[in-house]
Design a protein that fits this description.
238 residues; alpha/beta; Metallo-beta-lactamase, Chain A; six-stranded mixed sheet; 14 strands; globular; binds zinc ion; binds fe (iii) ion
């Protein structure tokens, strides 16, 4: 089962818990205190962290959680020097088992060079870190537009009903930009109506789905890497 909770200013924390084996993974470690509290109130014992990339709002809790719980940290090979406490590297294309599930690692560079996403087919869920956001995508801090375009294409190829767990609640601002790019898309308008309602009640817009993003997210709809690059630059200035 997947538990989602807000933390820091606009991050989401996620716990992946297998009741049979009792294993519990935190996807990234934005906020050690909050993650520990979320585990404690459910009686979960944290056993793993799956890091998507090395930014402080994703690895900030690594060491403190490792010290408290003695857990096992998995993260991207290319970012390994920058991921505190890392014990196992992944680079994309491999699978590992976690409790009752197989976890498929996808290399999704663009935001950082090592960025990985964790896809769990049996749960129909993918944890995408800062690669894909609801109605948006991550900034290109280290990678090229072509790399991010290919990373999004990799995600777009997952089954359409796949739930997408993004690491931030950026949807309202992303949607305003999306509407400036694609004003006549009725699926985007309907999506935004829903986002406005949810946010007015302080409810999450995450998870989204691959199908929803293909229908409405201008970054997922770009046909070429060149078009993608133009939209990404426009968003940086929006
Ligand atoms: Zn980041
Ligand atoms: Fe982030």
């Amino acid at each position: 089962m997947i538990i989602q909770f807000p933390c820091l200013s606009d991050n989401y924390g996620f716990l992946l818990h297998d009741p049979k084996t009792g294993k519990t993974a935190s996807i990234d470690a934005p906020d050690a205190q909050e993650i520990t509290a979320q585990c404690a109130k459910r009686g979960y014992k944290l056993s793993h962290i799956f890091n998507t990339h090395h930014h402080p709002d994703h690895v900030g809790g690594n060491i403190s959680l490792k010290e408290q719980h003695g857990l096992h940290i998995i993260g991207p090979q290319a970012d390994k020097e920058r991921i505190p406490g890392i014990a196992q590297v992944v680079s994309g294309g491999e699978q590992f088992s976690f409790g009752a599930w197989d976890v498929h690692v996808l290399h999704t560079p663009g935001h950082t060079k090592g960025h990985c996403a964790y896809y769990i087919p049996k749960l129909g869920s993918v944890f995408v870190g800062d690669t894909l956001f609801a109605l948006g995508c991550g900034r290109l801090f280290e990678g090229t537009a072509k790399q991010m375009f290919d990373s999004l294409a990799q995600l777009a190829a997952l089954p359409p009903e796949t739930k997408v767990y993004c690491a931030h609640e950026y949807t309202l601002a992303n949607g305003r930009f999306a509407q400036s790019i694609d004003p006549d898309n009725p699926k985007l308008s309907a999506y935004m109506d829903e986002v406005i309602k949810l946010r007015a009640q302080n409810l999450p817009t995450v998870p989204t789905t691959i199908a929803k993003e293909i229908a409405a997210n201008p970054f997922m709809r770009a046909k070429t890497a060149e078009d993608f690059a133009i939209i990404r630059r426009a968003k940086d200035r929006f």
